[in-house]
Design brief:
Blueprint lengths: L2 H12 L11 H21 L5 H4 L5 H12 L4 H13 L8 H17 L6 H9 L1
Helix pairs in contact: 1-2, 5-6
Pfam families: Retrotran_gag_2
Length: 130
């Protein structure tokens, strides 16, 4: 089984097709439980450590995904404001790595873009070197 079909099988747990019927056979139930466990593991390992408290006690992959989606995909003004504050307060620490700083900077820029905020090149430069 190739990587994309395994990913598709796991994704079906997060967004099941309409009309999907739950298995009744013991073997199918065991396989489904193993797939759910795999999906939860993949979601947890794909995030940062700071998301674990939000998803630690969730046992259903679609609930886990919905929780993270609500937490990070919000386009609300408060989310945008929080991201702007994080971006403008980001500083290169004494003896800190420039690559780590730029990685964090790029993450905030990408999160803002996902929230619908476009940032001009001049603002990139001003925020980076201010």
């Amino acid at each position: 089984m190739d990587q994309s079909s395994r990913r598709d099988d796991t994704w079906k747990l997060i967004e099941p097709s309409p009309g999907t019927v739950a298995p009744t056979d013991d073997a199918e139930l065991t396989a489904l439980q193993a797939l759910k466990s795999k999906a939860l593991t993949m979601i947890a390992l794909s995030g940062r450590d700071n998301v674990i408290p939000y998803i630690a006690n969730i046992t259903k992959p679609y609930v886990c995904w919905a929780t993270l989606k609500a937490l990070y995909a919000s386009n609300s003004n408060s989310r945008k404001l929080l991201l702007w504050r994080k971006l403008t307060s980001l500083k290169l620490e004494e003896g800190g790595s420039m690559s780590t700083f730029l990685q964090h900077f790029k993450e905030f820029i990408n999160e803002l873009a996902c929230a619908g905020e476009t940032i001009a090149d001049e603002e990139h430069v001003l925020n980076t070197f201010s």
